[in-house]
Design brief:
The chain is mainly alpha-helical. It is built from 21 helices and two strands. Strands 1-2 form a two-stranded antiparallel sheet. Helix 3 runs parallel beside helix 16, helix 7 crosses helix 21 and helix 11 crosses helix 18.
């Protein structure tokens, strides 16, 4: 009978903590419907990898010898060695995005750039708190609210905190409906949130929509080569959408491919949530710094919009600036919901979408620039 109790007796307090974390992520996915396609596999995976003598990670089993686990294999091959899963996911994301609202209002590019302020602020905070520069850079990217970019940067930087960074990035993405309204209200008045905007977009030709992903890929590849894989696959997915001759592939990329990659990515990330690597004071610090980065990204975009309003006659609702983060399309929806609550009938969704999709591009470029800058000092 002893061998039947071997697993139970081997459970550590740290592993019990991870069971609670896993159950919490599943609860958020099921009860709150926060990014369920990602948080549910992450939560279940956190339980799997923390079972004593778990067969999903590499271990030495008594009487059997060394075994190889599928989750560790997935992590080593599709994230650690190649970043394949995060990059492939961007094909699906690119196929979902309509850049029309951005192309009809090019000024929205500025809001995507402004909403990356939190990244660099968090890097400074993490450095002051004693993290190595490579780890600080990786932690700062959490503020982009872009899971694939956070994973890519932390892997290229060889950060020791890939798991905590991935969990923080995706958790805060899922919590956009809670965090962003708080951040927006911190720096706006009710009158500012009630600013009414009309939407009169300029027509965007099909040739422009086809040319856009090609041009962006070339430009980003020249100025930020470290991010060209993410940007390139994002733009490739968008090109599939806009070319007009690959509708079935576009539908597949948006649905089956994106869903499958998201599921695999969630359960693969859970390898980094092993108790010995995750239940540490450093992890709590990373979660805290990541939250600060996320809040300051949102605030940075809002403050930029307020600055622009000093010089223009037709005022911009500053909440649009918060949509400049990368959490597409959640952030745009949150901004629209707040606008309609502040003033019934105020529809600023398409303005917010323009800022939101520009943030998707800006966050990836910011990640590449961070890699490039930090590499100069390592």
């Amino acid at each position: 009978m002893d061998f039947l109790l071997e697993g139970i007796l081997a459970i550590t307090p740290q592993q019990l903590v991870m069971y609670v974390v896993g159950i919490l992520l599943i609860w958020l996915a099921v009860k709150k419907e926060y990014e369920p396609a990602l948080l549910l596999p992450m939560g279940f995976g956190a339980i799997l990898v923390n079972l004593p003598l778990s067969g999903v990670i590499d271990q030495v089993m008594p009487g059997i010898g060394e075994t190889h686990g599928v989750i560790e294999w997935l992590f080593q091959t599709t994230i650690e060695a190649s970043e394949a899963l995060p990059i492939l996911l961007f094909i699906g994301i690119g196929a979902m995005i309509d850049f029309g609202p951005l192309l009809s209002q090019p000024v929205m590019f500025l809001f995507g750039a402004a909403a990356q302020f939190g990244i660099f602020f968090a890097i400074c905070v993490a450095t002051l708190m004693g993290f190595d520069l490579k780890d600080a850079a990786s932690i700062g990217i959490i503020g982009a609210a872009d899971g694939p970019t956070s994973i890519l940067v932390s892997q290229i930087m060889r950060s020791d905190y890939v798991g905590a960074i991935a969990v923080a990035a995706y958790s805060y993405m899922a919590l956009v409906p809670i965090i962003q309204p708080f951040a927006i209200r911190l720096v706006t008045t009710k009158k500012e949130r009630q600013i009414h905007m009309t939407y009169s977009p300029k027509a965007v030709s099909r040739s422009t929509k086809i040319a856009f992903p090609i041009i962006v890929t070339i430009i980003v590849g020249l100025i930020s080569p470290a991010s060209v894989a993410l940007v390139g696959f994002l733009m490739f997915g968008n090109l599939i959408r806009e070319c007009g001759v690959l509708q079935s592939l576009s539908d597949t990329a948006q649905n089956e491919l994106a869903n499958l990659i998201t599921l695999l990515l969630g359960i693969t990330i859970s390898f980094s949530m092993r108790a010995d690597a995750f239940v540490r004071v450093d992890t709590l610090m990373i979660m805290g710094i990541g939250l600060v980065a996320f809040i300051f990204d949102s605030i940075g975009g809002v403050l930029f919009a307020k600055f622009i309003n000093l010089f223009i006659k037709n005022k911009i609702n500053p909440m649009i600036g918060a949509a400049g983060i990368s959490a597409f399309p959640m952030s745009a929806r949150v901004v629209q919901k707040m606008a309609s609550e502040e003033e019934k009938g105020n529809i600023i969704l398409m303005h917010a979408v323009g800022a939101n999709v520009s943030g998707q591009i800006a966050s990836v470029i910011a990640g590449g620039l961070v890699i490039k800058l930090v590499s100069q000092y390592l």
